[in-house]
Amino acid sequence: MTGLDPTSVSSFQKHLAQSNRIVAILGAGLSASSGLPTFRGADGMWCNHDVQMIATPAGWRRDPGLVWQFYSDRRRMALRAQPNPAHFALAELAKRKSGFVALSQNVDGLLERAGMGKGDPNGQLRLLHGNLFDLRCAGGCGYEERGNFEDPLCPALSEEREKGRENVLGAQVEEGAKASKVSALLFEGIAAKNKKILGDKFADEKPTASDAAPLRGLGEDAPKLPDLVPVLRSGIGTNDLPQCPKCKSNILRPGVVWFGEGLPKDVVEGVDTLFEEQQIDLCLVIGTSSLVWPAAGYAEQARKRGARIAVVNMNPDDARNLRDGDWLFVGDAAVVVPQILGTSMGQDAGEAGNTADDQ
Ligand code: OAD
Ligand code: ZN
Q: Does 37 sit behind a cis peptide bond, omega within 30 degrees of 0 on the bond before it?
């Protein structure tokens, strides 16, 4: 077993053998070896995309087609990806230990495909940020769909259409908007002004007729109202997006949590109960930057319930608040996790591993 410190691995495994109440806090690094990008870091999704436009309620109101393009692309990538040995090792651990619970920030469905849980809010797999393959009515009629793996969800979101669109998710403005008499810049100016006046009440939505008021002084050259409706960057109208089959008057949205939204209530309550009622033996923190709450706080809550903490991460700087008696295993989760859980068949860990005791 090269790479990982054998003494640390055996001390971890000794503790693992005596543990039943195990909480695993999981992040995007778990699926990195399956070819799915993480969020932060040089190639992270949030570095290459405008978060406000694609992962917030305001972005959704402004251009749901753009939001759908982002999530449709992620659905496609996740469908083509395969669970890696870390997903399988965790699924196996869940079978071995009845008290195992995974709190996953991942929405890619790979743990489920490796055989763990079914996303039941009180089961062994708790999905903190939802799932790419769940859909629900954006109008709030209550319609929900679980495990919809169709691709594309509608013709407007097909891969062929996506390919024809250059950098649609980037910051560029659609050709149509450039051609319009009203420049995108002007709209941004109007939005900035409204934001200043309205403060917190400002919702970044499509400009309306009243937004055109500042243009009236332009006389003949003033654009007519239809010109004022900006071409959606996505070019996809709501009629072309997945429709709610129940109320038939709204579109469906991805069943994921966006910035500015609460986590699923039943899941959060279930996790709170877990931390209130139970003694916890071991907390695994795998492939997460531990920056996003509440997941970022769960390791400390587990510690308060008696848990020792084991971190698996490519980047040792992302192991936060380690104490004596904890473990840090540095390396690719797909290699390290099966090794430390004792489910790998002699694989090598590529990077060095240490325990906090060594530091
Ligand atoms: P991040 O992108 O913030 O962090 C990924 C972590 O995985 C980093 O600490 C990397 O060092 C580590 N990592 C990368 N490759 C790895 C590998 N092969 N093996 C082990 N570790 C590796 O992703 P999360 O922590 O999951 O939320 O981000 C949390 C939440 O922030 C996401 O769920 C998402 C995002 O905004 C929402 O979309 C609501
Ligand atoms: Zn509906």
A: no
How far is 74 from 30, CA to CA, in rounded Å? 16
287 CA distance to ligand 1 middle (Å): 6
Question: In the structure, what pLDDT confidence band is assigned to residue 117 with cuts at 50, 70 and 90?
Answer: confident
Answer for the pair 135, 157: CB distance below 8 angstroms, yes or no. Answer: no
Alpha-carbon distance of 333 to 33, in angstroms, equals: 8
The reported pLDDT for the residue numbered 203 is 61
pLDDT digits (tens, 9 = 90+) for 154-168: 999 998 887 766 444
Average pLDDT, the chain: 82
Q: How far apart are CA 132 and CA 135, in angstroms?
A: 8
Per the CB < 8 A criterion, the answer to whether 207 and 190 are in contact is: yes
User: Cis peptide before 6, with omega less than 30 degrees from 0?
Assistant: no
Question: What residues have CB less than 8 Å from 224, skipping those under 6 apart?
Answer: none
Handedness of CA 293, 37, 321, 126 (dihedral sign): positive
Q: Is 48 left (phi over 0), alpha (psi -120 to 50) or beta?
A: alpha
- Strand extents, DSSP E, 10-129: 22-26, 100-104, 125-127
Mutate to test the pocket of ligand 1, among 31, 292, 328, 336 (most ligand atoms within 8 A of CB): 292
Minimum-distance ligand 1 atom for the alpha carbon of 289: 9
Active site residues per annotation: 129
Tokens of 345: 């068949």
Which atom of ligand 1 lies at the shortest distance from residue 128's CA?
33
